[in-house]
Records
---
Amino acid sequence: MRVGEITVFNIGDREIPIAHRVISVHERDGAPNEDGRVVEFLTKGDRNSVDDRGLYPRGIKWLQTKNVVGRVRGFFPLVGTVTIILNDFPYVKWLLIASLAFFALSSRENG
């Protein structure tokens, strides 16, 4: 894990993983990785003004590699905003599905 890397992590009982940038990394003694150290890191969304500690479960100040689901290799700007809108406002999702169904059923092939 390196500072600047975008990681996908899942914490607590959240249904949807979060993809945010690593802003700080440190190691401490404890349950080992390959070299006998625990790697912990802190994340922050690029458009957020504060780090993600408010998202972490109570008492958790750093994430560990066990929380990592994956790493981002490429990105599409603002796609996460669409996901947030569709999950926070379910009627938008149903309106979109209904619109797509309407257009699919009402279109005809001439042939």
---
Amino acid sequence: MANLTKSGDDWAFTVTTTQAMSQYPNSYKGTEINVYDLAASTHMSPDRHRFTEFREIPPRSITAADKVIFNATGTGTMRIATPNGDKMSYITLTNVLYCKDLVFTLVLLC
């Protein structure tokens, strides 16, 4: 289950099961969520409109931690905002896989 809450301009997001990775609840559609993960294999996002460069690829099967299989159908570059104290910093992510069935943008931390 994924939980999202808002207080003023601040948002909080928690994942309480691995199934949230590959199940897209209707209540989160249109919400841009970034999740930072040390164990991720690559950057992935369901938000096609956030890509600044994009190219379609043949469908590539990916197995989530909960063993659900979904497809990447594109790859490209994204520029995302991330909190940095009282302001936002911008990060450019390259080789991001487009996976329309994900709940959130997964950012690989190196």
---
Amino acid sequence: MAAIDFVSQLRVLGLEVEEVRSDLIIVPYIIPVGRCRGQSARLGFVGFGDFPQNPPGCLHICPRLLPINQTGGAHPHASVHPSPNFGDEWEYWSRPLSHWAQTERNARSVLAHINHLLDTM
């Protein structure tokens, strides 16, 4: 499995996928949980070529939902960075999927992690 499998799994889940480059995709997303529930967003994924051995980095998102704060610390307010791979209106939340080995290692697991982040912001 590789990047094509991640894209395929997202599509099976009913999501549209815009393949910007072979290592960069954008997914339109309606936030299903939390204080932003129902809001339209775009999720970005980059560097997922070794999927499912490793998950893609999380979370590139547009629009910006949190203020930029590049200092370390706890979610939700710390480690929020600009996301230059995607554009000025994007931000990157440094929230690794550290429990990857305990998941099913698929796109559904990645989205569950993202939804947890969105629900707890």
